[in-house]
Amino acid sequence: MSVETVSLGPARPLPPGHYGPLGQLRSEWTKMRTVRSTLWTLVATIIAVVGIGAVATAVTAARWRSGGIVDHIGFDPTARSLAGVFLGQIVIGVLGVLVMSAEYGTGTIRATLSAVPNRPLVLACKAAVFAVVAFVASEILTFGAFFLGQALLRGSTPYATITQPGVARAVAGAGLVLTVLGLFAMGLAAIIRHTAGALTTYVGLLLVLPLILQAFPVSFQHQVIKFMPLVIGEHMAATNPHVHDFGGGALLSPWIGFGFLCAYAAVALVVGGILMYRRDA
Amino acid sequence: MIEAHGLTKRYGKTLAVDSLSFEVRPSQVTGFLGPNGSGKSTTMRVIMGLDLPDGGSATINGRPYRDLPWPLHEVGALLEAKAIHPGRTAFNHLWMLAQTHGIRRSRVDEVLDLVGLSEVAGRRAGKFSLGMGQRLGIAAALLGDPSVLLFDEPVNGLDPEGILWVRTLLRHLAGEGRTIFVSSHLMSEMALTADHVVVIGRGRLIADRPVAELVAGSSRRFVKVRTPQPEVLTPVVVGAGATVAPGTDGSLTVTGLSAEAIGDLAGEHGVRLHELTPLQASLEEAFMDLTRDSLEFGGQGVARSEAGGGAVASPAQEGAAR
Ligand SMILES: Nc1ncnc2c1ncn2[C@@H]1O[C@H](COP(=O)(O)OP(=O)(O)OP(=O)(O)O)[C@@H](O)[C@H]1O
Ligand SMILES: [Mg+2]
Fold this sequence. Notes:
B: alpha/beta, Rossmann fold, five-stranded antiparallel β-sheet, 13 helices, binds adenosine-5'-triphosphate, binds magnesium ion
């Protein structure tokens, strides 16, 4: 501890080149894996996606025989097993928000930006690391929920196999939706910088906006509802589009809808990046 | 080397830093002094590229912070506000910073050892005491072995041992040829640590000079006199052009005459003296003289009475201080 015993030596000449994305990606990965909130939100996502999917399919299987013909028409076993994606969207949003807002909440952002003053680079690397983690986790979870759900349905109800038309798209697509919504939440957090504020905004845009929409004329609702993230996500996680036809208003095809989601996330991240560049840290 | 040219920073209506220009040179400790709210922390954040100036510029080794190729190898900083996630361990906090610069793991262990945190490296920073948190911040600043170091009130919340440790560290780092810029609002602390001081008030530069000069340049010199016959001595020295103020301990504070002159006068009039001590305004007083006009919260009355009270030091103490 004595200063004299540990010589720091005079400052050395600078190494060639300059800092860059590789080091920053490593750093962001370390940051992400070394706080507990990451693990807890991922556990919560497992419970949401796989847990709720299992409960939903188990309940359906148990009640199938006593159910009426109305319940059986248009039954989408894939969508049923992905019922937890709805809540999963909220939980992955929490992770997306926390990864960004915790930097501001704890002041770590000052250490981060002192090491790497290129702010767009910091945000891009953070988003990239988050995207990889969220994508891998989401795909494992949606496929897990699908296979578990179908196993629970089998024998009691019609069930889906991954090779049937639209099924692989629905399962993989649901994972992509989760990933992109997480990025959207992260962009909001870069804009808002406070955990509570960013979470409220995210949940508001996801859940409350469709409710507010109900105050408007039905014709307007039909024009706008298809752009809601929640509707896009639900549509992606289904193989049978008719079930989720909102009052006859044409929905976007799953991939077009997904394109809109990506655009929302991109806008949030770009605005967040511009603000980050311009504002005091 | 740190250079500020006409640095200006506003927060809404508050003018936190007002066309501030100064240089911080290598191989010495430069103290950055100013009353509360005078803009020290703001200036440091602007130098670090964290806050963006409204006018002027700040450079480190000739470059704005954003243009540094390897920031951690050039600058290290311990800023006022905490910059550590409470849930992350001390090691991981340093490791994630090290990775941005390809700094090896052994260097992380080295700086942890240097600040005396090796044993708690695996503990979460949220559980750290104030002093340990401060040490972790210093470890982060030293991580890249930078030639320029900024410390914003590094001894805040430290115990006497910790304060001594920081003081020694700063001197040691300056001795290695590094540029050390350290803020404080305690002049006495700077007297023990700094070679040079930059003094600001209300965001403006007030003084930029060596500590020794600041002390010597202080206009106020006086003599403490203790005598059993104050009623005889007082009119004599007042008659010779001095002013006399009774001290709290029964002594007299005489301004305007040297100790020799007072002693001679006392001898001529047969006044017995028990003490005759030449005094100089302390650094704290020199500081308050400088910043009085720029006090943020109009506490002038308080500042003056404190200055007139216990804030005088003997020449012997001043000598030790340097
Ligand atoms: N982020 C901010 N937003 C708004 N005002 C600020 C901000 N940071 C500082 N200020 C204001 O700028 C002025 C300078 O503050 P600063 O913290 O730089 O002073 P300081 O010299 O470090 O004071 P102290 O000795 O108390 O640490 C103060 O009036 C303060 O209220
Ligand atoms: Mg301050």
